[in-house]
Amino acid sequence: MSSFMLRLCWAKALLLALVLALPAPGAADTAQTVLAGVNAARAKAGCAPLRINPKLTAAAKAHARAMAEQNFFGHTGKDGSKFSNRIKRQGYSYRAAAENIAAGQKSASQVLGSWLKSAGHRKNILNCRLKETGIAVIYQPDDAPIRGQSQPFRYYWVQVFAAPK
After folding, report:
1. Using an 8 Å Cβ cutoff, are 50 and 131 in contact?
2. How far apart, in Å, are the Cα atoms of 129 and each of 10, 47, 108, 109, 126?
3. 66: alpha, beta or left, given left = phi > 0 and alpha = psi -120 to 50?
């Protein structure tokens, strides 16, 4: 292979690595939009608003990134981790915790709608014992379909909830 071709391959690999490291377009604003919607639903149910916690955000981001980069969708990581493990890895101590995941929704309103229509996800959102949250979305533009899916998800969402000790 010529040196030009090798440089071109390395350039493509570097560009791909940079793209995969990027959060979803407008991810910070998107997290705030999800939080506002979640807190509006909680207010209707008589729950106090959730507060963003950076450690929970890091746990959510790590799992969203793992799902995107390792091409899977589930609460259990490819390393066997559960959300409780991922929260503890960030140094967060909790009394209660929960996790919502989603994939494929392109906007905060779409993911919020999906979660509120799902009994289990809605239960997590409306659990008044949970006080803090972390929200992340990772966008993978070159995503491949996960086995059993005909289309790639491209967007991977995670919301972690907890009540601190």
Report:
1. yes
2. 50, 8, 24, 24, 9
3. alpha
Length of the chain: 165
First CA to last CA distance, the chain: 58
Q: Where are the extended beta strands (E) located within the chain? A: 51-52, 94-103, 132-139, 155-164
9 burial class (0-12, 13-18, 19+ CB within 10 angstroms)?
exposed
Q: Give residue 147's pLDDT.
A: 87
Are 83 and 99 within 8 A, CB to CB? yes
Look up residue 95 and give its two tokens: 């009394």
Judge whether residue 21 has pLDDT over 70.
Answer: no
Strand arrangement of the beta sheet that strand 94-103 belongs to: 51-52, 132-139, 155-164, 94-103
pLDDT at 51: 97
DSSP 150: S
> What's residue 27's pLDDT?
57
Q: What are the tokens at 148?
A: 């059993």
CB 135 within 8 A of CB 31: yes
Instruction: Pick from 5-14, 59-68, 143-152 the range whose average pLDDT is largest.
Output: 59-68
